[in-house]
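ok trying again, last paste got cut off:
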Amino acid sequence: MTDRERIYQALDSLGVAYERYAHAPAFHIDQCEALAARFHALICKNYFLSTRRKKDYCLCIVRPNARLRTSDISAQAGTSRLGFGSEEDLQALLRTRPGSVSPLGLLFDEELRVRLLVDRALVGEPRLAFHPCDNTETLVLSWADFAEKFLPAVRHAPTFVDVHDFGDLPES
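nice, full thing came through this time. structure:
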């Protein structure tokens, strides 16, 4: 069974309602804008982060127009400075690669090494879209199913963070 099939199986067994959309590979959020309109859903940006010594790992989920400042996120998460995690660690912990990062990969983090950070503005969004750890497909599900069924099942409680939009902050 592939990792993607394991994700479908987990969602089905949890009673999570989702829609599946196949598409050309989408490696960056800019490529997902047209998809978001087609699915009538918010496609989130997902960042795999770690501390320099790889003591702490975080998956940070934000709105597509959010401007991630790792210093702000690190302070809110109470960790030393976070930076982008390595491709090797991403594969080992969430079974995915850059361009396909997804909170659905938390299914594979059985040792609970990855902490989930969620942009507070996502709470209550009616339709969220995530890759099933493969960027040739997108799944659309509700915030309620994601937060109340999937996350408890994979034992990852979110830490909520406040992230500014691009227009809210001056360029640095």
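cool. The mean pLDDT is 90. The longest strand covers residues 45-51.
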